[in-house]
Specification:
By secondary structure, the chain is of the alpha/beta class. It has a domain of 225 residues: 3-Layer(aba) Sandwich (Rossmann fold), CATH 3.40.50.720. The termini are far apart.
Length: 345
């Protein structure tokens, strides 16, 4: 009688029992605080080397000290990274000192709740520049390092808020109609569209790198475990937050989708991972992009506009500049993405 080979099912994903990643290198932007800190802490527990990308060396040292107190022997580094300063990004990547990169988690971001509209020194609206352009551009500079590691991951962090927004391709930087909460949601929609479009372009180029999009759901400080001196939480704050825990979660749990996107061998490029309970809380699960997040035409036009604004093509592994055939005279995108002249900068 022929023997039937047993098929071993892949183990269920357990957010508290992560697979080992010894010898791998991970970069987490904004890894010194918030969700990014917990992404870094959880990845450090797998044995991989985690690089915290952030502007402030003192804050990075505090974060690394906190991680080491919970993960003895954690391999950690700091990379100075100012996402709002496009001109500094190439030098930051050059200073990284790695010969390969297994994953980058594009996590850092800024959210403003008030007017007036703020710009970077490059003349870009601050949230669009930091959250979107500040990750679009360094992906191009990191591409050679990612290409060396088979199956490397580019994980881009969107937001639940992006579900209900639409991009205005004629006013990507909210020059004419600035509303802070809407500008933030649009910057996160731009990140989502970028991550999904990047994977389409990587597949077309035959790359083994995977681009995955995640979002943390609802992640509140008041539900986040204390990490003194980075984050403290009183008993009173914890009690007041308990009703909210029925709908949302803390930032430790908000890190789970990104960590799974980095480590789970079952994850595929072009996927979106988010908390499984209404996209707001719980363990990470696949979510189907719908509405504006699934608009491939807008994603392609956003790519062309972003390439013109940064001079980088993240999928081309060619950080020497843009393809002039893609941009018309005076910086106008012939696909209709809108003028890229000074009123957009």
């Amino acid at each position: 009688m022929p023997t039937v080979s047993a098929v071993t099912a892949a183990p269920a994903w357990d957010v508290r029992r992560l697979p080992r990643a010894d010898g791998k290198f991970f970069l987490v932007t904004g890894g010194n605080a918030g969700i990014g800190y917990f992404v870094a802490e959880q990845l450090a527990g797998t044995g991989g080397t985690v690089v915290l990308g952030c502007r402030d060396a003192v804050k990075a040292e505090a974060a690394m000290g906190s991680i080491r107190s919970r993960v003895p022997g954690a391999e950690l580094r700091h990379m100075r990274l100012d996402l709002a300063d496009l001109g500094s990004l190439e030098a930051s990547v050059d200073a990284l000192g790695l010969d390969r990169l297994d994953a980058v988690v594009h996590n850092a971001g800024v959210a403003l709740d008030h007017t007036p509209r703020r710009e970077t020194k490059d003349g870009h609206e601050l949230m669009f520049a930091t959250n979107h352009l500040g990750h679009f551009a360094p992906t191009g500079w990191l591409a050679p390092l990612l290409a060396v590691a088979p199956g490397s991951r580019i994980v881009t962090t969107g937001s639940f808020a992006a579900k209900s927004e639409h991009l205005d391709l004629d006013d990507l930087q909210s020059t004419h109609d600035y509303r802070p909460k809407r500008a933030y949601a649009r910057s996160k929609l731009a990140q989502t569209l970028f991550g999904l479009e990047l994977d389409r372009r990587l597949r077309a180029a035959g790359s083994t790198a995977l681009s995955v999009v995640v979002h943390p759901g609802g992640a509140l400080d008041s539900l986040t475990p204390a990490r003194p001196p980075l984050h403290a939480r009183t008993s009173a704050e914890r009690l007041r937050a308990l009703p909210a825990a029925l709908l949302v979660q803390g930032k430790e749990a908000g890190a789970w989708p990104a960590v799974r996107a980095v480590l789970d061998p079952a994850v595929r490029g072009g996927q979106l991972w988010a908390p499984h309970r209404f996209g707001l809380r719980g363990e990470p699960a696949l979510e189907t992009p719908q509405g504006p997040r699934a608009d491939t035409a807008t994603a392609a036009r956003l790519w062309t506009a972003s390439r013109a604004l940064t001079g980088i093509d993240p999928a081309g592994i060619d950080p020497t500049g843009i393809d002039p055939a893609g941009i018309g005279p005076n910086g106008v995108d012939p696909s209709g993405a809108g003028s890229l002249t000074d009123h957009h900068l």
